[in-house]
Amino acid sequence: MLDILDNSLYSSDFYLDSIIMSLRKQVQISETQVPKAAIGLLIFVLIFGLFIVGYDQGQLFSLVQGEQAYNDLWVHEFSHDMRHAAGFPCH
């Protein structure tokens, strides 16, 4: 295109504009929503983790180990310090 003011094909404004336009990158921002199944799964993990750390007294392993799980308290012993740090009284 010819510049109307000075009839020059390579005027400085046109040349700089073409360089700037070639250096620009198009940024496309897409708004996506978090799937409801993912939120539901995270809530389930939170509640299950809260049960294990705070309230399990052998119930979880009693499904596999039977009555002995209530005497061993494996989950309780492994998460003992975390229980106290979270404010759960356990003894």
Number of helices: 6
Output the radius of gyration: 33 Å
Q: Portion of residues in helices?
A: 55-70%
Structural class: mainly alpha
User: What is the global morphology?
Assistant: rod-shaped
Spans with pLDDT under 50 lasting ≥5 residues?
none
How large a portion of the residues is in β-strands, by DSSP E? under 5%
Count of DSSP strands: 0
Biggest sheet statistics: none
N-to-C CA distance: 85 Å
Element order: H for helix, E for strand:
HHHHHH
Mean pLDDT: 78
Question: What brief labels describe this structure?
Answer:
single chain; 91 residues; mainly alpha; 60% helix; 0% strand; rod-shaped
Describe it for me?
- The chain has a domain at 36-91.
- With 91 residues, the chain is mainly α.
- 60% of the residues lie in helices and 0% in strands.
Summarize it.
This protein is mainly alpha-helical and 91 residues long. The protein is built from 6 helices and no strands. Helix content is 60%, strand content 0%.
How is this fold's topology laid out?
Layout: H1 12-23, H2 36-54, H3 59-65, H4 68-72, H5 74-78, H6 80-86
